[in-house]
Amino acid sequence: MSLPGFLIRLTSRLWLLPGCIATGAVAISPTLLHAQQISDTVQNNLPADAFPGGATTWVKKTGRSAFTHYSANMAFEKRMDFKLGEALFQRMWVAAPTRTKTTDGLGPLYNSRSCIGCHVRNGRGHALDPKNDPDRTAVAMLLRLSIAPQNDVDRELLASGKANSIADPVYGNQFQELSVPGIPAEGRAMVTYRDQIVTMADGENITLHQPDYQLQDLAYGPLHDGLMISPRIAPQMIGLGLLEAIPEHMITDQADPDDANGDGISGRANRVWSIADQNVTLGRFGWKAGMPTLDQQNKNAMQFDVGLSNSFYPDGAGDCTDAQTLCREAPNGNSPEFEDLEAHSVITDLILYYTRNLAPPMRPNANDADVLAGKKIFTDLGCVACHRPSYQLPVNNQHPEQSGQLIWPYSDLLLHDMGDGLADHRPEAQASGTEWRTPPLWGLGRTKEIDSRAGFLHDGRANTILEAVLWHGGEAQQAREAVINLPRSDRSKLIAFLKSL
Questions:
Q1: CA 22 – CA 15 distance, rounded (Å)
Q2: Quick check: pTM over 0.85?
């Protein structure tokens, strides 16, 4: 990839980063080196699922940076593209206009000034916490907004698949709590929690926290009477390119929308609009599988989270609606010099390569006795009916890092009814208000190590893995009850397995 002038200075700095070797240094083939590392660990009797991403798996010590490493089988000459993408993922955008045209275009309304602002060290976000973070200084979550279709145009948009939902006519697709100078932010999201006690069969009490959200200090008038709100924390970023490489038929062949086999599990595929292909296709990214590709997921986040125009979402005003006049009239960073966009194709392509190649870390304790016992319990309880352990990816010469890998994400990427307890009551494309995509479990045990504030489930309400399990309902109700009735020793082994992922 040739580099335009605006990246030259950034490039020169990146030579100093770890993994970037200056001209003249002796380079060892990363593929051969990684193969030797895996061979060494296999000799220590680690099973295949100790390497969740196959040959992409990062096998060195990680710590809090566990989710920041490139695919371990990446060719040396591609690491610069990864590092450039990382730098752009971390870039702090500013309001237009500025003299530095390549960094302006923020907002006018936004949730974060950078991608990394929500995806802290590429890990999960966290829920609103009015007790410990009253000033809302670092909240890696957002609120999606929509209303029921109001007319034939709205109904046709939904029926055609060209829209996943109908935006609020005033506040748009997403509630924006931040804004550039001179433009009022939309308001403030607040939350209160109601505690629920679950008593395990052995007498242990587990406290669950049911959130209730309110939108306050509204700057643009009242909310729509039928407004639907869905809170979402930022998901972890590892293995996204591997998920995209799973052939569509491997996902759809698992679907059983009418529960024909009678096992109580009725996974469905979401079907969503592909902007690149201009048709309806399989959704696989996002909490409700509302995005078809990683590229569209990235560009959607740039537009609605940061307010950056790009080739899929070229509006320089971001999520500003026609009712927000000052917002629509504010200067933007769309520049003829850069494809009349704020985040042009060089930027989005580098970020795509970066997000496609964030490697899952190795599971060093995959062969521990308690972990293996917990894995068997996980299988016996039927959890694998939704959390499918593995996929064999086909050969793909266009994406050599992901090509031919045996991966262990523990997800079927399908929609499942999770019951009223987790429902947001907000449809998204073909996903109902009680359905969620099965989240991949790789990296689950590293969540708190990456960020101690990070939470589990779509809105971060669960502080522990066990709390997340106990929120399962709907199709997972039977498995939840089985966990409640496990002896404490078996429950500990199950959690040990989940923490090993």
A1: 6
A2: yes
